[in-house]
Amino acid sequence: MHLIPESEYRKRLTALATIMDKRNLGGVFLSNPTNIKYYSGMIYIQTERPAGLFVTRDAEVFFMGPKLEEEHSMFLSSVISNSYSYFDYPGKVHPFKQFSRWFHELNGTKDLGLDSTSLYPSVYGFKGIPVSEIMDEEKIVDISSSLYDIRRIKSENEQRVLRESAKWANYAHRLLQNYIEPDLFDFQIAHRASSDACLAAMNAFGRDSQPPIRYPVDISAGFRGQVGTHSYYPHSLSINRPIKKDDLLGSGADGNIDGYHVEIERNLFVGKVTTQMRKYHGMMVEMQQAAISALKVGSKFSDIDRVVNSFAKLNDVSQLLLHHSGHCIGLEGHESPFFDVGDDSLIRENMVFTVEPGLYIPRLGGFRHSDTIIMHKDGPEIITYYPHDIDDLIID
Predict the structure, then answer these.
(1) The pLDDT of residue 95
(2) How far is the C-alpha of 24 from the C-alpha of 6, rounded, in Å?
């Protein structure tokens, strides 16, 4: 089962058909995996074998891709009604040429909407051919921006799934904190917490159903190498030593239920907390709260980043900022708009985003908390409820 009901996918497809009517398109071909998931529920793993969904003006959905995914696609999605397949890539006939024949069969000579004007991105050694070689370029309409705009506003069903993701992210992060011990590598702790959280979720949802979590592990928690002074690097990736007593850690968790991401990030302290650590942790928490307090429907995303920058300037720590203050989130871990002085997009009701300003001190470490927030007309709803207070984040 999926937590997004089939009725919502049907509603999305009807909205897509309305876009086709307005722009006089005969159909739409979706090859972006996020769009495929959004409009059908199908989670497609991109390889060198090009694939996508063709949606007609009548909101009928056809899978187009390799034979090995043909039956699987209909197993994964109840809205895919039919399919066209080729045996494998590269094959005797390039898949794009076969796509062209199928497009003509379904679309005739009408304009075709694409979410990628290259038809399929180059991954795993795939080599495309110019779209102009298989169809008239004047018949191609790029609708990628329109599709992205639609995904910015989250439905009630999406918000419900995001809250579920947040619940499991909070749980995974609690396991992560509980499992921390000096002399263990960060990846050991992360693997144990992530695996245990994923197994707990599998049991909670029921092993006999098509689970809304995917193998290997979608509920995850870890450190991304932000161990000790390496927590100074926001995207450290790894560090080749075990966690030590008195380390400052940068940690995070993602629930990712039914494809929907949330984000929790916290500082954790292994043993002694120095005066400097308390100072910068407290300042960071206050800075994040100032940003959250400024969230209002109709305000600009840039306004929130300016609040953070003003706070940093007032406290003489502007030089310790290394990034903007957050981003939208959903089917992708990072989505636009961004809390950045260069993004004047308006905050709208039912948007979902993270707020995560950070302070980074050379030879000491990084201080950043990230929380996922649903924006309502009457104010923000923080769905990642993990503690912020330093005394709750200490591992004795």
Answers:
(1) 97
(2) 26
